[in-house]
Amino acid sequence: MRKVIINDPTLRDGSHAIRHQLTAEQIALYCSAADKAGVPIVEVGHGNGAGASSLQLGESLLSDEVMLSIARNHLKTSKLGIHIIPGFATIERDLSKAIDLGVDVIRVASHCTEADITERHIGYARRRGKEVYGVLMMTHMASKEVLAEEALKMESYGAEGIMLMDSAGAYLPSDVSEKIGVLVNKLNIPVGFHAHNNLGLSIANSLAALEAGAIMLDGCARGFGAGAGNAPIEVLVAVLQKIGYDTGIDLYSILDAADLAEKKILKEIPSIQSTSVVSGLAGVFSGFSIHVNRVAQSYAVDPRDIFFELGRRQVVAGQEDIIIEVASELAAKRGV
Amino acid sequence: MLSERAYDFGLKAPHLVNRRDITLLTKDIAGVIDLPAEITMIIHAAGSPDNRLHASDPLKVMRTITMGTEALLSSASRLPNLSKILNISSGLIYGSRNTDSREFNSCGQESFSFNNAYIEAKRYAETLCSVYGNQYKLNIINIRPYAFVGPYQLVDRPWAINNFIGDYLNDCPIRILGDGETVRSYMYPSDMSLWILKLLADGHAGQSYNLGNPTPITLKSLAEKIASAMHKKLPVQVKYYQDHSLRNSRFVPDVSKAHNELGLKVTVEIDEALEHTLLWNLSQYNSVKN
Question: Does the active-site annotation cover A16?
Fold first, then answer.
């Protein structure tokens, strides 16, 4: 039976959906539930990763230190993972401290064409003896050839696997097959896929990734994640079980974990809102949804127009301030 | 010693820099015009084998190797007392996969790839050496190094053996990516230094020699040796995720030419090399921790 490694970023990507306001109780409860289910890796932190809590990206309720300490205390068999983006996370302030707190898995992420910035972070984590993966975000914005080159850089820096993120939920299964297939052929390390559900294809795209040779998938409880959410882990595990993949995760326990998440963490279950569909079509980071909806209301403009304009400008995470600029320009045009 | 970062070298090795027979020249090899007239022999080793640099800044890698070699050879051609040049190329020029170096037939690389910058530049540098040797009657010997292990080689280097040593120092499981059947061989620096000096002194101009240890070892065997070195009993994790057999590479030199022509032999085999290397790394690691 072919094995699949599931990483669960409910307590990281899901932070986007509640403006990074995870409480100590929520972290403790979900970690215990995921641990009981046998989830291999549980990722915890601010939506944009360790060190990203800020006025621009949204301030976390709890510090990284507190979140990781609580998670560490409630994970007995599951590995504790973090997502870090060099620039938001520094080695001294964030990565070193996270490793000291007992993090097992570090996923170092960059925009899909900027793998160069991950070298020092990947190298540091490897030197500290940790399991390290490279993550390419917003991968719909780059060709398969460029993605392969960027992934090869991460491999050369010491990454033990590469995750492709469909951060905007923009992919069709054929896109996933094509891009994952190229990486599987070019790299000597495993490849994985992180789906978003803007176009309702998170599970289908995850399966396409597996069929193309990926062996790692991300899934969140009830799809709890930015925008329309991610691939729901409980559905992913069930489907993989039905097809005959071995995730090592107990189905009933992960269903319980998802029920718990719905009851204790989610303010609302992620759904494919109109703006999520547009976000996927425009190829804009799913995490922008909350900000776009808020700004659209302030400027009395259609949030869908904002998304399409952001897509035209090829805006990426970290450029949230451009939302206001776009809304203001749209409002001015309408005034004319 | 001429290097763009000669000053940094001085900081790392003051015991060498302060010797009266060593002079540091801080220059970019690609910008060299005139060399000191008293030079009689040159070892040309410019160009980093670090594949992280090859991935991040392939243009710089190519520039250093190609323009650097040309600038050096042009300057060397004007030296009045020069007797020999040793060009340090790379065993990778045979192609990175399934290479046993018995013959140089096809490159085995995808030529249109930034990832080949180092290898293609090294091939070009070898050709440049051949051309300068022919046109300017320079005595140039070409050597193709393979893999090495020893003290002063930092554990953050991006090769399997360095990762294994890093895991060893951290008391972590030794992690192998793949099925562990990739084959390598490792030469200890004392042998490497001796071979380089011997080749410089007695090697035949216009010839290429492989430099390395001809005794192969699989990464799995290597990891097991490191995991159990000096009374430790660390687990070895083979992170096998798919049929890896087609990806396993062999990077082992045929050194019969150096042996037959110059009598060169390997004197430090892998067990002894590992012991020295681990002891040195442990001393460094402990001094940092304390």
Answer: yes
